[in-house]
Amino acid sequence: MCIRDSPLGLEQVLRNLLFNAVDALGDKGNVHIAASRVIDSAPEICEIRVSDNGPGVPTELRDKLFNAGCITRSHSHRSGLGLTIARRILEQFGGTISYQPNTPAGSIFVIRLLTPAGDDL
How far is CA 117 from CA 7, 97, 114, in A? Predict the structure, then answer.
């Protein structure tokens, strides 16, 4: 199965990442989304990066980030399930999601999906 067969799944993943970024940024900061094809891999992979220049994820929570109930901000009104759901959706399609700190501040979430042969981004 390909993520293209279920575009709502990818939409939900991106929606969760964007809501988290906007919530973390408050009234200040920027969110960027970039997509590219990783052509030096076999099979080819589509990589989507969602980055922001907010406060980032505290070091002590990074290993738990994709676990149910993990909330990175004490003022959040969210359930702590968004990243868990995002990971599960991507895994259904053979994809992955990972976190890395953005330098000098913020977060980067990297989505990697197999690119079906002959597909354009």
Answer: 18, 21, 9
